[in-house]
Prior knowledge:
Protein name: GH18 domain-containing protein
InterPro entries: Chitinase_II/V-like_cat, Chitinase_insertion_sf, GH, Glyco_hydro18_cat, Glyco_hydro_18_chit_AS, Glycosyl_Hydrlase_18
CATH class: Alpha Beta
Oligomer: single chain
Pfam family, one: Glyco_hydro_18
Strand content: 15-25%
Distance between the termini: 24 Å
Keywords: Glycosidase, Hydrolase, Signal
Number of strands: 16
Shape: globular
Family: Belongs to the glycosyl hydrolase 18 family.
Largest sheet: 8 strands, parallel, barrel
CATH architecture: Alpha-Beta Barrel
Strand order of the largest sheet: 1-2-3-4-5-8-9-16
CATH topology: TIM Barrel
Mean pLDDT: 92
Number of helices: 11
Number of domains: 1
Order of helices and strands: HEEHEHHEHEEEHEHEEEEHEEEHEHH
Amino acid sequence: MAGLKFMYFLSIIVLLTITTGSGCIMASPPAVKGAYWPSWSETFPPSAIDTSLFSHVYYAFLMPNNVTFKFEIPDSTAVLLLDFSTTLHRKKPPVKTLISIGDGGANPRQFARMASEAKSRKVFINSAIEVARKFGFDGLDLDWESPKDPKEMEDLGYLFKEWRDAIQKEAKTTKKPPLLLTAAVYFSVEFLWFEKYRKYPVAPMKENLDWINAMCYDYHGYWDTTVTGAHAALYDPKSNISTSYGLKSWIRAGMPRHMVVMGLPLYGRTWKLKDPNLNGIGAPAVGLGPGDEGVLTFAEVVKFNEDNGATVLYDVETVSTYSYAGSSWIGYDDTLSTTTKIRFAQALGLRGYFFWTLSYDDEWKISMQASRAWPIDELY
């Protein structure tokens, strides 16, 4: 607990040092307490969302036509979109709503083709704005995960500039507040995948986005079943694959701190231990543990731990939690690790946090603790 108190006071010091020459605290943009809502959920409607815990909620996901790059909205989806925005705007308190375009399972080539030419970018942008206005949303979020080379990163920069220009023009014409424009991005500003180096176009991003949502999770998972891992580690003493490294890399590259939002997972990743007696982070494994592709929602993790009498441990070195029962091993975040990460984000001067995904929590345990740890009125 002493560590948490230190992080809290450090965050206050950071905020108090952002001052004008007269010694007064400079105005900061409102904190972001975001979360993505899975539109495919059959048991978690928008009416079930506790809006007192969030400031922005993302509808996940929409995809444009893969030939025309326009959004073709079926009647069933139109009903969902309208219900989502209307319900969350009428709730007390209301929250801002954004449509998230893409997702990790989407074909990245579709975005690459769209962004490669000015004509197709314009079609996509205008259609996205039209859909957001038609269904009463406050903004748009692009989830084009990991453009594959420098050319695609450059095209991404063009897309954001033209998108912002179109948003400003539309707002001026309609006399409405400009739509928000955000992007879900890799945890680090630069990375090497399949022997190809790539780096996000920070300059056009900071000039044209409202903020970025850094996906600080999925560092380990089904793609490597040989050892267990803290899939959302704040620190990793053995590599740069960690939240602390990724967030700081964005800042070093020139992204303003108030435009960086830290991602937090509401799920765990699982492994099957090779030897139940070797059960720490990095322990030998021989496959995936319980859950679909080795994934359990936080609610399922809690139930698994209770049903199996699992041993639950907090790892100070990585700032993560893990549990094991027999040969089953789960790495995840709980209220303690989440709170510590939020204190870290505050001390770093970030804009806020977001969760993937709303329906995975267990009776709002983590969402509630996170909201308490970052009180908007107190810090902003």
